[in-house]
Amino acid sequence: MFSIYPIPAFSDNYIWCLADTAEGKALVVDPGQAQPVTDYLKNAGLTLDTILVTHHHPDHTGGIAKLKESHPDVRIVGPEDSPFANVTETTRHGDNVEWQKIRFRVMATPGHTLDHIVYFTETQVNGAPVLFSGDTLFIGGCGRLFEGTPEQMYRSLNSLRALPDSTAIYCAHEYTLANLRFARHWLPQDDGLIQFEQACHELRQAGKATVPSSLKNEKALNLFLRWDDPAVVETAKAYGAEKGLPVTKSAEVFAAVRHGKDHF
Fold it and tell me: Which residues lie closer than 8 Å to 242 by C-beta, 6 or more apart?
């Protein structure tokens, strides 16, 4: 009954469409552009009735006004206390958002922005529980810290790391190969990263998305979730010594990795 489809936008965004094909209804996540959504819904024979927003950045919200014009009754759910105020329903950490008998748990994940939230459901879609992670957790990476602190992002990612391993990570950008280039620079002998990078290259060469990945895979490969992995800790300490950064706690390991990626 339920399926999730990627709607490409801009150069590397994904607007996720969750479809109830039996009833012809659609929910979309972070529509930064309206036209790709409109075109996709028309071709798929779906009617938009709900929009989920993870944070206020224009590449996640820029298409909402136009979609509202063509779908005046659309439900728009977004974080409270957000610079993006054009919602019909605000939500916050611990709330539930229901759509077509699917219940999403809202989790606050400040770091990339202060208003950032994600949506998680244990309901299996395409064979797995679902996390719409916005710009908090990417495949092989995490969002830049435009507003929050490393400590905030560490805590946000730690909360996501506790979700079921089978969770499918539906992030909002196709950043995977760039993230893996950095990861391979830090851990050039990591066999898992070598194999995953090759698999992702093949997907992209075939015109396919590298998203979603599983949380289990991300915990094994994503440097931004491996703050207790001895190989990552060792590299982070060496990097911290070179850059004058303290690296003793897990949050500081994460901060060193984030600093390394920012200056890669």
Answer: none
Q: What percent of the chain has pLDDT over 70?
A: 100
57 classed as catalytic: yes
pTM over the 0.90 mark: yes
Query: In whole angstroms, what is the distance from residue 239 CA to residue 162 CA?
Result: 27
What are the tokens at 143?
A: 């969002």
Phi and psi, residue 182, nearest 5°: -65, -45
CA angle 179, 180, 181 (to 5 degrees): 90
What's the pLDDT score for residue 19? 98
What tokens were used for 175? 């950043």
185 is catalytic: no
Residue 32 C-alpha from the chain's centroid: 14
Phi, psi of 114 (to 5 degrees): -80, -25
Question: For this structure, is 112 an active site residue?
Answer: yes
3-class DSSP state for residue 45?
coil
Q: How many CA atoms lie within 13 A of 245 on its CB side?
A: 21
173 is catalytic: yes
* 17 vs 7: CA distance, rounded Å: 7
Catalytic residue among 20, 49, 59, 190: 59
For residues 198 and 95, what is the distance between their CA atoms, to the nearest angstrom? Answer: 39
CA-only gyration radius of the chain, Å: 18
Question: Please, what is the angle between helix 176-186 and helix 191-205, to 10°?
Answer: 160
Strand 47-52 versus strand 75-79 pairing type: parallel
Which are the contacts of 222, defined by CB distance < 8 A and separation ≥ 6?
A: 137, 139, 140, 141, 142, 179, 183
Q: What is the pLDDT of residues 3-56, one digit of tens each?
A: 999 999 999 999 999 999 999 999 999 999 999 999 999 999 999 999 999 999
